[in-house]
Amino acid sequence: MKINIILGGVGGQGILSIASIIGKAALSQGLYLKQSEVHGMSQRGGDVMSNLRLSSDEIFSDLIPEGQADIIIGVEPMEALRHLKFLKPDGWLVTNSRPFLNIENYTDRELIYSEINKIKHHVLIDADKIASEIGNSKVSNVVMLGAATPFLKIDENIIIDAINSIFSNKGKNLVDINIKGLKAGILEAQKMMVD
Amino acid sequence: MQNILLLGDEAIAQGAIDAGLSAVYAYPGTPSTEITEYIQKSKEAQSGEIVAQWTANEKTAVEAALGASYAGKRSMACMKHVGLNVAADAFMNSSITGVNGGIVVVVADDPSMHSSQNEQDSRFYGKFAQVPILEPVNQQQAYDMMHYAFDYSERLNVPILMRITTRMAHSRAGVKVKMQKTSQNIFHLPKVANQFVLLPALARVNYKKLLQNIPLMEKESSTSGFNKFIDGEDKSMGIIASGIAYNYLRENYENGKVPFPVLSISQYPEPIEMIRKLYSETEKIMVLEEGYPIIEEQLKGILNLGKPVHGRLDGTLPRDGELNPNIIGKVLNFDIIVSYENSASVMSRPPALCQGCPHTDSYSALNSALESVGKGHVLSDIGCYTLAALKPLEAINSCVDMGASITMAKGAADAGLHPSVAVIGDSTFTHSGMTGLLDAVICNTPITVIILDNGTTGMTGGQRSEATGKIEDICKGLGVSQEHIHVLNPINKYHEENVATIKKELDYKGVSVIIPRRECIVTLNARLKAIKSMKELQQN
Ligand SMILES: Cc1ncc(C[n+]2csc(CCOP(=O)(O)OP(=O)(O)O)c2C)c(N)n1
Ligand code: SF4
Fold it and tell me: B501-515 pLDDT, tens per residue?
């Protein structure tokens, strides 16, 4: 088993929590893991990305080579596209459709969506809307993790266990809402895959 | 043994704790900050067994570590690469004093300048000071090296430089940690009472000892086990890979099996015998270095008379920026198959000041105050507030090195710039702005110094700022007159008032200090959140 994931978003959108949940799940499965993060300057509203690599064999590079990502998870649509050259020909691009507007020259969003729709395997969902519907707009990142879960080659329950252990010291409410977010994301991705 | 997920920075921190560390001193700086933060959160630091403190700057950090070493304890100083410039005087001379308790100076370089002004390679400093350098290949080795580093430092009586780069610092991997900790050294003063007295006569003796040790260091580099010679069938090329470049190399081959003989270098001085062997057994050499072409330059020498040596110097690899698996793959003639080209709809998204950041209001007031005199009057510094160089504020004209705002404003004023304004953050001010302010006071130079006091070291994630609660007193103590020190509240409501105060001081023909004071939004929110969850806990 070997899987390369690129996470893209804007500083402050919570891609590091997605990475740490997947990381925890991978470690509980005895997998090797490398997770490269962005700290520092870009975290102030700039574009941030994280490289996450899981494997049953030793992993060498902390960075994923171009054309080698199995999944790109975007917490923001333009940020998902930013890393396109890393995607494998049959890789999945799974992204939130909600733009994060902190630059003046943000591209027309219909154009962004049409570029995403050109990708062979993609999931495009409004994670912010889903998160609000279940009662906490802040879990949109976990909704995106849910939407990517069908492609992760890690069982859903193991990811739920990881959420449990990461958020347990912050109270039961937070655990529950995150699990709800995850499940809502999974459901949404499954809908899109059938279509 | 226990397998835990650690950043490279954290692996170093845990390694140091387990190797009997007594004290760590540091000034924050990306990508080194998490080393000290990790130690500060450890139970050893919480219980007071280990001292883990932020210092005013990197020089005071290295000196404090040297003091702990003098008292027989194992100590560490951590910083980003440019921090070593600030600490260079202490660092260079610590190689002459030698150590009593072991010292490891950890420096994190930032090739590609993700969060820095330059991409200087700290291995140069290690060579300059003639001390051993360690450069781990991965997080596990980073952890393992700390035990070795402290032992080695004490055995050879030298400080050790550990050099890492951004990807190692900020990448997580499973690390097997020892269950058995080395206990801390007991307090003991140096056996030779004047070991740390660098009077010329004594320094000459110490320096000779250091030089005598160099052959031992060279030998150690071949025997410690961190430098590895991995043989390969194909002798048409030999590859030298330093630090994490070895991982990028292996990434290009099935199961990481490189067909060429490879020398993976993680310890300096370079293992001369191993390099000789590689050179004699292969037709040409390829050098893969994350940083400057230091090994390559040494192999070539000035005359470059031997077999071909390729690397960053001859343009085989790019001269600047960090490496990655693709750059190395290209050099080895691998095809990179990219199915999706990057999209033209993607715009650049530079970092920006947070919504509600106090700096925004401070700069709005400054911009208004300077409207009539025009652009080009503001010498600034390094911190979140440097982002005001970009749109929409476009308020500053320089950012060079920490503290340079005040001194450059002084020089510019001496050369005829009026008004001449310095804008500096609170933490940057106590890091290295105070001495420059003294220069200006002594000469009564007409400058207006704006010290942006957000109560924290914002850029690096909100560490304690040594300036908090002290700025007015420091300025007064340095001789700025009381009537030219003003504290402002940088919120929109007081905009006109603030503009008026700044304008008045721009006209003053001496040193004035203006202190816009409002807490950083990020630390404020974190504080409020902590209070809220405290209350909830108490209610339950
Ligand atoms: C010599 C040196 N050390 C450390 C850094 C990293 N660094 C850049 S800005 C900064 C903190 C600035 O804090 P402050 O002056 O309070 O400004 P703020 O970010 O809070 O606005 C640090 C630690 C650096 N660039 N150079
Ligand atoms: S972290 Fe604080 S100081 Fe930095 S931009 Fe945000 S609010 Fe301003």
Answer: 999 999 999 999 999
* Chain segment B296-344, per-residue pLDDT in tens: 999 999 998 899 999 999 999 999 999 999 999 999 999 988 889 888 8
Angstrom distance (rounded) from CA B137 to CA B122: 16
Map residue B194 onto helix, strand or coil. Answer: coil
| Nearest atom (ligand 2) to Cα of B358 | 8
Alpha carbon distance A94, B540 (integer Å):
40
Q: Which pLDDT score is estimated for B39?
A: 98
Atom 6 of ligand 2, residue of closest alpha carbon: B354
* A&B contacts, CB < 8 Å: 151
pLDDT tens sequence across A111-134 = 999 999 999 999 999 999 999 999
Q: Which superfamily does B358-523 belong to?
A: Thiamin diphosphate (ThDP)-binding fold, Pyr/PP domains (3.40.50.970)
DSSP H stretches of helix in chain A: 15-28, 77-81, 109-117, 127-133, 140-148, 156-167, 172-194
Interface test with B, best of A10, A16, A44, A78 (most B CBs within 10 A): A44
In this prediction, residue B540 has a pLDDT band, given cuts at 50, 70 and 90, of low
| β partners of residue B449 | B422, B513
**Residue nearest (by alpha carbon) to ligand 1 atom 12:** B383
- Looking at the complex, does the CB of residue A7 fall below 8 Å from at least one CB of chain B? no
- Domain B228-331's class? alpha beta
Which of B174, B244, B329 is opposite residue A33, by nearest beta carbon?
A: B174
Q: What is the CATH number of domain B2-223?
A: 3.40.50.970
